[in-house]
Batch of 3 targets.
Target 1
Amino acid sequence: MNENQEPVVETEDLWKLFKLGDEVVKALKGVSLSVHPGELVVIMGPSGSGKSTMLHLMGGLERPTKGEIYLEGQPLSGLTESQLSTMRHQAVGFIFQSYNLIPLLTATENVELPLVFDDVDSAEVRKDSTELLERVGLGHRLDHTPSRMSGGEQQRVAIARALIGRPRLLLADEPTANLDHKNGEAIVELLTTLNHEMGMTTVISTHDRSVAEHASRVIEMRDGKVISDSGSGQGSATDNLATA
């Protein structure tokens, strides 16, 4: 991490409200934080704490009700949907707990999918996708469709797909939630290795405390607020809860 550099992503007084029937759910309540280049940040919290909403807003998948998000210094609020889509495509890689692979496509084709409409050399894209799949340990699964792969292997394909555009920010939303302990640990080890070897700024949301052991920084959320941030001097979660 280099705190002297501009944050890769920064949120300022971020609020997100959802209407459910006659009720208004406050998913985020004034969250401000910064993630710097090279950090491996884990956002922890129980279901409903706001951690997944936080990731979706950071990556421009949703817009906040109030507040601002800066991606590489660029405020997202003033961007059109088309501009926002372009920025996401160029700067952010996403990993979801449900893998989101196309069933009829091979591992290689799934990895190449984000670049299919880009003006890029197809042979170069094939070379990159093959190298990424080999890097995540799937060099022997290049031509396999998702149905012929385990959950852990499918998540590795999803990781390779998230990296194909060389994003500056990797966002992983509960990447181990659908995996057993062994495969979940392997995925976290892989994300940690990619962070260290590629300098990939990574933010992971999870409810699994074992994932936090790999982080350079742990942020704890509860009820839409940050209650602890090991990188900001806010103290421990227990200390913050005691004074809340």
Note: The first strand starts at residue 9 and ends at 20.
Target 2
Amino acid sequence: MSGLFKIRGLTKRYGDRTVLDRIDLDLERGEGLALLGRSGTGKSVLLRQLNGLEAPSEGTIEFDGQCLSSLDERQLAPIRRRVAMLFQSGALFDSMTVFGNIAFPLLEHTDMDEDEVRECVAEKLRRVGLEGIEDRMPSQLSGGMRKRVALARSLALDPEVVLFDEPSTGLDPMTAASIASLIESARRDLGVTCVVVTHDLPLARRTGQRVAYLHESKFRFIGTWAEAEASDDRHLHDFLEGREENHAA
């Protein structure tokens, strides 16, 4: 693996509220990172920094040697093709068929002809186990199917990175496990770097080779699961074991 993201001193403020406070992180090419923390600790904010949807208040984010905050919207466009984001809701276009949803980025960003687009859409649907549903509308899909279609769309342009924001929210445990399997297969089989924000610890353990724990706007822990379990940090263990915090920092 080789370095892909380099974050140094990243700070994000909204007015007088500091959401991320001088955090550092290195993300390796081809790895899976589970990004954990209690609600409101800035996990989703960090995802939006990683593909340039928001700019930092201070500090730098480098992607493959390029400083994102130095790029304008035109220069960020090719970066966003390489760094896809799967939103919590899936964010499918309700007025489009499944085919239209997955084809949309291909029609916007490639010169594929109609047959190539159709073949690519079919291949992405096969990858997420949903062959032959191109003509269905999102309203006809279950929650798990919508998440799979959203994943297929996020993979349409063969990105190097996919950022997942709570991919198992609202899903039953078996469906959540199938989503975890698809995320892991994208990393393992396609070499996609995956950053997964989740409160679903079984999914986090399955998709993250490393875990990064945000607490009070800072990274309190970054390391492997074995290192997390060996850590003497009580806050980290409270979170991983689902206990209420009842001690001083």
Note: The beta strands are 3-14, 17-28, 32-37, 58-63, 66-67, 83-86, 161-165, 193-197, 210-215, 218-224.
Target 3
Amino acid sequence: MLDIADELHGWIEEGRDFAVATVVSVGGSAPRGPGAALAVDSEGRALGSVSGGCVEGAVYDLCTAALRDGETVRERFGYSDEDAFAVGLTCGGVIEVMVTPVTAHAPSRAVFRAALSAAVRDEPAALARVVQGPAAFLGRALLVRADGSHEGGLGGHPELDRTAVTETRALLEAGRTGTVALSEDGSHCPGGLTLLVESRTPPPRMIVFGAVDFAAALVRAGKFLGHHVTVCDARPVFATPARFPEADEVVVDWPHRYLRSTPTDGRTVLCVLTHDAKFDVPLLTQALRMPVAYVGAMGSRRTHEDRERRLRDAGLGDRELARLRSPIGLDLGARTPEETALSIAAEIVAARRGGTGLPLTGGATPIHRDLSGAAA
């Protein structure tokens, strides 16, 4: 639900009745992960997607039926010879979808409204819903905020809400969407209730160091991937909003000094495009010791060898240097700034998702990998 929060918030503020279908589990080469949503209002208008087109028509019908009947339902869609071109997933995967009516009298409407409001304000919050268990629990929801406060509840044993809040907050802190199995009394025994936890956190940061020509293209690629993009350079003549209109921020500062003072986390991406030792070495010495998602540096192989020698002289060891992606990007044969930005963006995605960077043609590994049991 939270992946279409901006549009859905408008619907709920207008007082519309709607039903929302949410992917609660996937298997095989399913096109979209848990949390993907499609909503249909009482006038038949739709937004979002659960499958990239494979089963949208069938899910749309489930939503209209839920609005009519007021019942929360769960449905499985998978590949078979009979239904592959009807309502099945021709990619060979399986998805399970829960459809929840959100009408004026729906018990969870207030929780959904609070969750959507938090999402559009970029406030860290997670929405937990019962997606499997006794019918009396199905669709119940609670909203958990970063400070541990919560709204709504799952009902049942008092320990259930307390345990659900604890588990939901842990996924929120990791910025993950996934499922949690609980028993009705709140213990961790599987087979009782399954919660789908949708986390919504501020967008991950991409910091591009070096206000060079390639940086403008990388800013566009970073925005396309959903990052909050900052450009940093010590030279005020180059680091200007006019040169990087699509960046969220343009900062004039020494790169290592800015990195030391700005917030980062385990999702932050650092791209060093300066290929100038006086900027690179102090910056990378700091960056490679930080728990960020990706550190890449532009330059030729000769530049990389010289840079690595300087970094070793600065005290970095093999483990820290192994984190450095240099020369930056995947080997696409890129020449132009746009092609280079594409190669860098591709490497960032591969690093995040565990991809190999190899062609899918002729490969035998799964197209969609499950690295942790939950989608980020």
Note: The radius of gyration is 23 Å.
